[in-house]
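Please decode residue identities from the backbone states below.
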């Protein structure tokens, strides 16, 4: 369960990292059009921010997956088989 949670976090980070540059650029151009200030807003993509966000995603996904995995590991097989949910 822990690996699944981290894997889902990594997939979401990967999609976000791929889409962040073009979406950020389009938002920057939209601000220029909205305020008629061409050249005032410069688009800068931060690769350090992408790697920092990867560390945050892995940490949060691990933390969010650990407690359910730990609770599931403490349940006996008898209790699992007897559960009617």
């Amino acid at each position: 369960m822990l690996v699944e949670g981290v894997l889902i976090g990594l997939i979401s980070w990967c999609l976000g990292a791929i889409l962040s540059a073009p979406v950020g650029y389009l938002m920057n151009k939209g601000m220029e059009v909205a305020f008629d200030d061409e050249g005032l807003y410069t688009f800068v993509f931060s690769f350090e921010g992408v790697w920092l966000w990867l560390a945050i995603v892995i940490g949060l996904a691990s933390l969010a997956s650990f407690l359910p995995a730990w609770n599931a590991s403490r349940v006996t097989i008898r209790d699992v088989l007897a559960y009617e949910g």
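Observation: The mean pLDDT is 89.
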